[in-house]
What we know:
By secondary structure, the protein is mainly β. The protein contains 3 helices and 22 strands.
Amino acid sequence: xxxxxxxxxxxxxxxxxxxxxxEIILLNGEIGIESDTGKAKVGNGTDLYKNLPYxxxxxxxxxxxxxQGIPGVQGIQGIQGVPGVNGKDAVLGxxxxxVDSTFKINNLRRTGHPETEIIEDDYNxxxxxxxxxxxxxxxxxxxxxxxxxxxxxxxxxxxxxxxPIYVYxxxxxxxxxxxxxxxxxxxxxxxxxxxxxxxxxxxxIHEEIINIEENVDFANETYWFYIYAxxxxxxxxxxxxIGFGDKAVSxxxxxxxxxxSDTLLNTQNNQPLKYWVGTQEQYDAISVKxxxxxxxxxx
Length: 299
């Protein structure tokens, strides 16, 4: 029986020396492969290939120890993992860890019963999210928990935060407006940043490098990006960005999930395409190929 592969894509390939001497600028989301090393980078539409970060997946778990042979022989070590279909916990250049950072879906988790509103095309052509709490006489922690694509952070990780925020003056911010990295089970806060004293009625971009000082497993609570008013307040945010790295970013970047959903569509059935990357061996091990998945095979 002849196997029919629904969709295959071959990305641009050159060896490392040619890439480093190339003036080609990869499009935003376009992938370039080094034919001699097997490494890959994702373009941002601005920088030359040599200035882009490599795609680097999280290391897989160590394989099982081999059966006991002659004394002193140790079992083989497991192969290095690659990002899964959903890309959970992969470190991919400086892409956003926030899913739906332009608030197109509006599947937000709310705390403290705030009033929320999506304002279309409010900032740089992107939607903004307005959060308002007024008339409260006790602490409310009224805000939203925004989903991410990372379920674990480890000690020593560095995160880059870039957050355009607009604080209104029509509601007194009586106990503070905050951003927090928080695991809500156990009420554990890894980082908290206050925005109460920002200039009112104008967009202000807050940028900060965040050092993670302990290991934390959010499990299925990946909505750890939390912004809220402790009691009362009225503010809005747009283009929230948080990603791995130790240098401030000059502009907003989407997440891998948003990039795929925005740009990849199977025109044969009008279904969104998923993206898979792995070795030939891993590809061959997939018993049933999905017609709505792009399979990218790397050496």
